[in-house]
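Step 1: inspect the first sequence and its C-alpha cells.
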Amino acid sequence: MPETIRQSALRQALSWPVSRRSLVVMVVVGTVLNLINQGDALLSGAGIDWPKAVLTYLVPFCVASYGAYTAFGEAAKRRNREVIPTCVDTDPL
C-alpha cells in the first residue's frame, strides 16, 4: 500500500538529519529561554524548576519538528499538483 502524504512527511520529519537539526534548535533556543526564565534562580543558587526546564527544551524541538513536517507535506502536495506539460507540435505543416 502506498504511503500517504502525511505518512511520508512524518517519516521525513522524524529522519535523523531533520531530527538532528531539531535537536540543535532545542539546545540553542531551550538554553536561551531557560536563561531568560530561570536565570535569576541559577545566579542566586536557588533550585531549578525541572519540569519547567524540560518543557522549555521540549517545546523548541516540537516546533522545529512540526515545521519540518508541514514543509515536507506542502512540498509533496505541490509535487502532486504539478502538471507535466505535453509537447504540442506548433509546426503548421
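Step 2: inspect the second sequence and its C-alpha cells, then contrast the two.
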Amino acid sequence: MKPTVVCICGSTRHKAQILGHTQRETIFGKVAINHGFFHHTDQFPITDAQKDMLDELMLRKIDIADEILVVDPNEYIGNSTKRAILYAERQHKRVRYVSKEEAERKRRHAERKAKTS
C-alpha cells in the first residue's frame, strides 16, 4: 500500500515543533515534507522575492501531498499558512490541525482516566 504524503505547514517561527511533527508523522509511516527552510528561527534574512518563492514552493508541496498538518501553537496561524490552508482546501486535501488533535487526545485521555477512577 502506498503511504500517505503529509505536508507539514506552519510559521517558520515554530521550527522545533514542525520538525517534531515531521518526525512523528514519519514514524507513523507517512511521507512527511515540510518547509525545508526556516528563515525566522534561523534568523536568515530573505528578500520579498525569496519569501514569495518559498510560499509558492509550499503550494507545490501541497500539490504533492495527500493531506496537510497545520502546526498551530496556541492556535497561531500566520498569513502564509492561512494561504496554504485555503489552497489545500481548494485542492480537496485533508487539513489537520495540531491544536485540534492535541485537544482531542487530551479529551480522550481524561475520559479514560475518569472511567478507571
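Step 3: confirm your contrast with the notes below.
The radius of gyration is 16 Å. The chain has four helices and four strands.
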